[in-house]
Predict the 3D structure of the following.
Amino acid sequence: MISSLAPRNRSNYLDKCPNLSLSTNLFQVDFREDIKIYIYSVKITPDISHEDVKRLRNILIHSRKIIERLVGTFAISGRTLFGSKCLSGKDELNLKTEFEGTPYQIFLKMVKQVALSDIHSQDKRKSGVVFAFLNNMVKNFFYELDYTEIGRSRKYFDSQHYHQLEAARVLVYKGYSSNFTLLEGGLFLRIDPSFKIVRS
């Protein structure tokens, strides 16, 4: 003989549970997938050494207002610029600027365009361009806060403030690691605390 169990009153059980606060390192990002990204190659005269990427970035940031007017919100990666607008009626643009007393001429040439919807593409080259754009937007944000990336680690450290351990002769830098990831629930920005130990 099989007897059925009385249904459990779950509402009473849940009422007795304490409220819990849940923290996460994932932040969901909503974006319009029909937006396109325009990729520009960057050339500059006088030429700047490939080892001095920071100076080239600073020159472009110094000219942010005029560049944003032409190519929209942009992110910088080496000698590549990701823009949110297409040059009106042009594939190439040159502009003059001055940085730290030196006149420069910047040449931007559009080489490719992709849609944000390509982030779902099985073709890693297409989805990779979108991730590169998003991750470089975050990189630009950290650089404006005067954080420094060590290598291509997507880890950014506050280079102006650190803790010195004299006995061990090391410096401890605090910072964050950050990158975008695509999950079942959508696109998320992952941010984690990070530390870097450097011998003094």
The radius of gyration is 24 Å. The longest strand covers residues 102-115.
